Every structure is written in structure tokens, then in C-alpha cells.
Amino acid sequence: MPEFIKPSRLQRGDTVASVSLSSGFVTEVPHRYEAGKRQLRDAFGLQVVEAPNALRGAEYLHRHPQARADDLHWALENPEVRGIFSVIGGDDSVRLLPHLDLDLIRRFPKVMLGFSDTTITLMQFLRAGVHAFYGPAILTDLAENAGIRDFVARGVRRALFDARPFGLEAASEWTEEHVDWRDEARQEQPRSFQPSDGWVWLGGRKRVEGHLVGGCLEVLDMLNGTPGWPEARLWDGAILCLETSEDVPPPSQVGYWLRNFGAQGILGKASGLLMSRPKAYTPDMTSRLYDWVKRVAWEFGREDLPIVANMDFGHTSPQLTLPLGAKVVIDPTKATVDVLEAGVS
């Protein structure tokens, strides 16, 4: 397995930087951003400071990818900043690749938290040899209506604050209820959640270990073939964690992406596969998705591959926080997924 640097764990009283590496949408919902900051303070004792360009708006940030990369570098070099939290995702942080300094990431390893389009940046942390964290953004579950859910708080605390192994858990309830973030009156009204069916086991019988690598499939597709695509060594023996976005790609498209991973040799070398609850899928779409996943595993001779689906990470709520790069074990006989080492030191 590749060796990674563990960033220092967060503690109460620490300052974290908010960064808009993908979209400047935050300026359209300032009340929700303030709610996220307040809830981070109340739940974890964290103080949030904005990176210099984080609140400059969507048009400015779209025109200036260098400014977004500068914000990441500023947060890394700033001795008062202990962690870096993504404000929100987007669709074009692949444009940051020419401007990112991987040597700086390695020299100043810090907690980096985000998901969706932040997949681009998290992958560069792995390429620099530093653990990264696939979890909620400030405007999503950290600014959840009426407060951060207990499931989310536990996941963040275990991954970012506790320097010890931990088990992943299935949420007892989940939601896709849409709330207009621009409606300030709704911020303190909780969303409706429904009972969860738990994880779905699609394949594999043997206990396996590997390091976590993955993210949002649509974003990985944008990254594929660029200089920011992880080197082969980072995929070797990995447990893949893959999810889909609100774009709602059809099951066949997910199958095509997995075939690409098969053709690259990634599936052949993988130790296991974790898949999130697909955003906005009907039961029929979910069934067809599972058929596609099992079909592609068979096509590339990986019927032995342990596959866990319907997990609570990515574009679902509430979200887990996954320590990318950390060693994980999948045990089909016990129906467990455990993180064998802390993501932080």
C-alpha cells in the first residue's frame, strides 16, 4: 500500500479556512453560510475564517481559477489555519490543475474536507502523499436545516478529531427533500427524513484490506486523462469509494465508467468497492445500477470483489466522512467496513 502523511487532528478552538475552489455560489446564500459557520462552532468548537477570494462571487471565481488555487495555498501556508473546508462543490475545479502546487500540499499537510467537485483537489492531496477527507461541505450537511445531524457530527469527529481507528456505520434515516437555500425562513425548519434500508452487499465473500481512493464519478471522468489523474501506484490494492451527483447519470453510464476502470486495470487491482446511495434514483434505476455493477465485475473477472452499495457518503444526507488514503477492511462475513488506521495524527 502507498504511504501517506497524516495531517494533524483538529481540536476545539482551532481555526479552519473556508475555500470556494469550485463555485462562488455562497454569495447567493449568505445566511446559510453563516449558519454553517455557527454550527461548526457549536458542534466542534471550530472558528471559520474565509480565504481571501472565497466570498468574491461566482463570476469572479469562474474567471480566475488561479485565485481559487491561491486560496488553497494561502490556507496551507497560514500557520493559524489548522484545516481547510470546502464551501460547496461545482463543476470546473479541474481548471485548477495547472495552478496547484503539490509540493506545498506535502510540506504543509492539513485536513482538507469536501466532496463532489472537490474530488479534483482531494485527488491532488493523495498524489502529494497526504490523506484527504471525503465528507460534507459547509453549505451542505454542515449547514443542515435546524442543525448538524448526529450521524454527520459523529462522522466528522471520528475522521478529523480522533486519532484512532473507527468503524463506518449505516445511517438509520436519510433524505432527498429539496429546500430552497435562498429561503432564509426555512433555515431553522428541519427537513423530513425517512428510514434507511441499510447497506446492500453485491459481491465478495472474503475479508479484504486496502486504502481508500475515489470520489464523484462525474468528476473523476473529467479528471481522467489529465496530469492530475492518480498514478497507477495509488490505485494498486485500493478500496474504491465511488458516488454519483445530482446530474443523475443513468445506470448504464455508471457501468461505462466502471468499464473504463476495468480497461485501465484499476478494477483488476482493486481490493474492494464501496458505492454510495445514488442521488435521485428510482427503485428501478437502483436495481439496474446493481445489475450493471455486477455485470462489469464479471466482465473483468472480479466476481470475487467485495462490493458494498447504498452507503451514506457523497450526494446523500446525512453523510459519512471518509479518510481517503487510510487503510480500510471490508468483512462480508460480518457485514462490516472498518477504518484500520486514523486519518489524522
TrEMBL record:
Entries under SUPFAM superfamilies matching the protein: Class I glutamine amidotransferase-like, LD-carboxypeptidase A C-terminal domain-like
GO molecular-function term, one example from the UniProt record: carboxypeptidase activity
InterPro entries with a match to the protein in the record: Carboxypeptidase_A_C_sf (IPR027461), Class_I_gatase-like (IPR029062), LdcA_N (IPR027478), Peptidase_S66_N (IPR040449), Peptidase_S66C (IPR040921), S66_fam (IPR003507)
Record's keyword terms, sorted: Carboxypeptidase, Hydrolase, Protease
Coiled-coil ranges from the UniProt annotation: none
LD-carboxypeptidase C-terminal domain boundaries: 209-329
Taxonomic superkingdom: Bacteria
One Pfam family from the record: Peptidase_S66
Entry-linked Gene3D superfamilies: Class I glutamine amidotransferase-like, LD-carboxypeptidase A C-terminal domain-like
Domain LD-carboxypeptidase N-terminal: 16-135
Family classification: Belongs to the peptidase S66 family.
PANTHER family membership: LD-CARBOXYPEPTIDASE C-TERMINAL DOMAIN-CONTAINING PROTEIN (PTHR30237:SF4), MURAMOYLTETRAPEPTIDE CARBOXYPEPTIDASE (PTHR30237)
Name of this chain's protein: Muramoyltetrapeptide carboxypeptidase LdcA involved in peptidoglycan recycling
Species whose genome carries this gene: Deinococcus yavapaiensis KR-236
